């Protein structure tokens, strides 16, 4: 089963595996995603392009709007998977962190059981894991063991994927197929990608049409190469819209109108339909 904001389902259909309908952070001043109607319009466009599910990775304390997501899902017909979890420390005030960090295990579990969160989102650092990351990932592992929901990971500029798997899987006993590694397209190292895939994790390539992240021209061939190497069942794609400027142009529908046609049709069906259902199940 997959936990959506309207209840548990057994299929997701065509899925945007990493995006944000709502997001606000002090490190992104003036770029907040806070209004309901623009989110509604974005979901409508995604639906009109054939999309059926959006997985929102916005964690606690970043204006994830759990209150608004069920109505948006009902109004648009798009299923929404919501997140609990915690981002890097820079996204929060020291006072908020001091109050929240000691209670993470409890808060994560409560979001899953009481507020229909379907994943736990945490974050690594640039080429490594600081004490904040270790603390939040430990809490995420504990909450995973209590609930079964998957853990998704923001990899800073796509780095430290193997460090994350060493901590979550080798030290904290999270099954690797319950871990989704995000932003791998931002650090397009084939060796790292294959090592992470061989370990059993899901690999998410998200944020197409960000020219500075070498996404559009590398992602199709990267996905094809990983599929040829035997890892087709572990690949995911997402839009990762994080600022108001990215709404509508290119928007969530870009995944379906521009990226999907560049993939082999059978591989595209696996990446957009079959894999998300397994990646986000519990």
Account of the protein in words:
Pfam families: PTE. InterPro entries: Metal_Hydrolase, Phosphotriesterase. Keywords: Hydrolase, Metal-binding. The modification N6-carboxylysine is found at residue 121. Belongs to the metallo-dependent hydrolases superfamily. Phosphotriesterase family. This protein is of the alpha/beta class and 282 residues long. The protein has a single domain (2-279), classed as TIM Barrel (Alpha-Beta Barrel), CATH 3.20.20. Helices cover 40% and strands 16% of the residues. It has helices at residues 36-48, 69-76, 94-100, 104-115, 131-147, 161-171, 190-199, 219-231, 254-259, 265-279; strands at residues 2-4, 7-9, 15-19, 53-56, 79-85, 117-123, 151-154, 179-182, 202-206, 235-238. An 8-stranded parallel beta sheet has the order 3-4-5-6-7-8-9-10. Strands 1-2 form a two-stranded antiparallel sheet. α2 links the parallel β4 and β5. α4 (104-115) crosses α5 (131-147) and α7 (190-199) packs across α8. It is globular and about 45 Å long. The N and C termini lie close together (6 Å). The model has no long low-confidence stretch (mean pLDDT 94).
